[in-house]
Amino acid sequence: MAGDWVVVGVEPEAVWVEQNTSIAFRGRELLLRPSPGGDVFPDVAMRQAVGESYYVAATFVHRFLSVMVWKRKAYIRVVGHTGGTHPIRVGGRKAPVGLHVTHHPGYDPADLPTPSTPLLFFSFAHYREAFGLVDDTYKFLGLFRILNITLRTSADQIRWVNGHLGDLAGYPIERCHAITARGEPDIGAYLYRAGRSALAHAAVPPVVDPDILEDTHRINLDLSLLTAIVELYMERELALPGY
Questions:
Q1: Quick check: 29 and 43 in contact, CB under 8 A?
Q2: Sign (positive/negative) of CA torsion 118, 123, 129, 132?
């Protein structure tokens, strides 16, 4: 006998299905549904397996969303949970999500990565969470936290960043040049001290003041550099597929 439904309401950045779409992920069937209009969110619905708790089933759906975010490089925010004997919807949506198309580069679920260890799922989860944050300062902290998954000390993180700067391209390299031109020759130490540490602490300078535009603008400029570094780390250190 089929179990109850778990429904996870989502707010995708731009692309979602245009019609109800069933897909397979790690041997289970998930139903992706668009918003029917009004105040209802798009969602992912899945039946619980026999003896499976709601929390375990919802975690499975979250894992699916996390690998979707990694492949698409676009946020999918979790906005609510519901479920029961029928796949009821999650309400409270205030504005249209955006463009709706059925097929889009990076969307096709047929080629989603399938992590083989809890550590890899853990990294995807942090990546999804960071991408969905609205504030750049918290997004910076969320992304930097990923480096800590296997790089346990600040010295390890700084060393890894500096050792892979030569693998960057495009704007991240330009941002590195701008930082060194300001008298910061050690990019890894700068990102840790003036970014991660300055955002995480409020007592010992340097700190970031959210009211000072110069501070928040600098974090915004550094965010693209850090994002490129973290994605490179996930591909090189954690052996995740790049897209």
A1: no
A2: negative
